[in-house]
Amino acid sequence: MNSTFNQSDLNGFKLATANVPSVESASLGIFIPVGCRHETAPVAGVSHFLEHMIFKGTTTRSASQLAIEAEGNGITMNAYTTEDHTMLEMRGPKENLDLMIELSGDMLWNSKYDIGDIDNERSVIEEEIIGYEESPADHVHDLLSRALWGDHPLAYSITGNEETLANIDQQALLNHHNAHYLSKGICVAAAGNFEHQQVKNAVSEHFPTLSKVAPTASPMREFAPSSIVEHRDIEQSHLCLGFKTEGRQSSERHALRLISLILGETMSSRLFQRLREELGLCYSIHTDFNLFEEIGNFNICAAFDSERLDQAQNELHAILNGLHTSPITQQELDHAKRFAIAQNRINLEGSQPYMQWAGDSTLCYNTIIDPSD
User: How far apart are CA 344 and CA 356, in angstroms?
Assistant: First the structure.
C-alpha cells in the first residue's frame, strides 16, 4: 500500500501523518506520554482513571451528546492506557477528519470532571479491576510486573486498586491533567487520504498551545530477581516468566523480536512444538516483550495442569538452555525473518495501522521509521 509520511511541530504538539490514497477511512490518535510509570503510589491508576473521564462530558457536550455526535457521523472512539502513554483514538469516514480532531480537542481539554461522574466511574473501574483479578490469565501479568519491578511505578497495575482508587478525587485528576495534558510532546497522528496541512489547520484551530515541560518518569533502579506465588482453588497453574532486557532505543530489539518468534510466538516455535504438540502439557504457550525507554521485559506465559507443573517447568527451562546448547539454526532464523516481515506488511493494511505506526514512531523515536526499514 503506497503511503507518504510527514512530520511537523505545532504549538508544542508533534504532528505525524500518513497519506494513504487507497482508503476511505481516516484514523486519528492523540498520544499523550503519560502512564503508570509517571504516577505516585497513593494515586496509582490516575492515568487510567483520567482516560475514562474524558468520555464523561465536556463544557459543551454531555457524555451522550459526544457519543451521538460521533457515532451519528460514522465515527468510533476508543482509548487505552499503558505503562508510559495514554492514547485517544477515533476512526471514521475521511471527510469527517476535522470533526474527529474537534471532538478530540473538546474531550481532552474541556472535560468537566464532575464529582458525580467521578464517583460513578470509580465504581465502573472497580468492576474492571475485579474482572482482571478473577481471570488468572490476566491477573498473573500484574504479579509478574511486581516480581520484575519491585516498588517501582512500572510495577503498578494500570487500573490501580481499591485503595488507590479511593484516593483519586477531582483535584487529583485535575493535577494530573494539568501536569501532563498541557505539556509539550503530545503526538497527534493521523492517516488517510488527506494532506498533512489539513491536520495542521484543524489542530491549530481546535487544540491549545502547549508550553509546559512534562514531569519526568521515575528513574529505573536495580531490583533483585523475585518470584510471586498466589494460591487459588482452581485446576490450572498459570505461569509467567519474565526477563529484563534493554529498552526501545537498543538496536538489539530486532534480535529480541526474532528470538520471541523462534521461542514462542508461533505454532512452529520451539516452546509450542515441544510443550503442546509433543507433550500435551498446555493448550497455549506464548512469548511477548515490552520495551520502555531505558529497559524492557521478555515474557513467557502459559497455563498447565497443576499436577504436571514441575514437568512443564523443567521442559521450559530445558528449551531456554537449548538456546545455548542447540543454537538457533539458519533455517529457523530465515523462517522467523520471513514471518516477521510478512506480518509487518500485513499489519499495515488500512488507515488505523498507519496512524498507529506514525504515532508510535514519533512518540518513541521522534521520527517516523520507514516500514521498509
Answer: 13
Spatial CB neighbours of 141, under 8 Å, sequence gap ≥ 6:
240, 299, 301
Phi and psi at residue 176, in whole multiples of 5°?
-65, -40
Q: Which of 191, 209, 206, 214 is nearest to 13 (CA)?
A: 209
Return the C-alpha torsion angle 263, 265, 271, 273, nearest 10.
-120
Is residue 103 within 8 Å of residue 25, measured between CB atoms?
Answer: no
Structural contact between residues 297 and 245, judged by C-beta atoms closer than 8 angstroms: yes
Angle, alpha carbons 307-150-168 (nearest 5°): 110
Taking the C-alpha atoms of residue 192 and residue 187, their distance in angstroms, rounded to an integer, is: 17
> 195: helix, coil or strand?
coil
Contact criterion met (CB below 8 Å) for 17 and 191: yes
Q: What is the residue whose three cell numbers read 504479579?
A: 143
If you average pLDDT over residues 233-243, what whole number do you get? 93
Closest CA to 125 of 40, 45, 67: 45
Query: CA-to-CA distance for 287 and 301, rounded, in angstroms?
Result: 6
What pLDDT is attached to residue 224?
82
Q: pTM score > 0.90 for this model?
A: yes
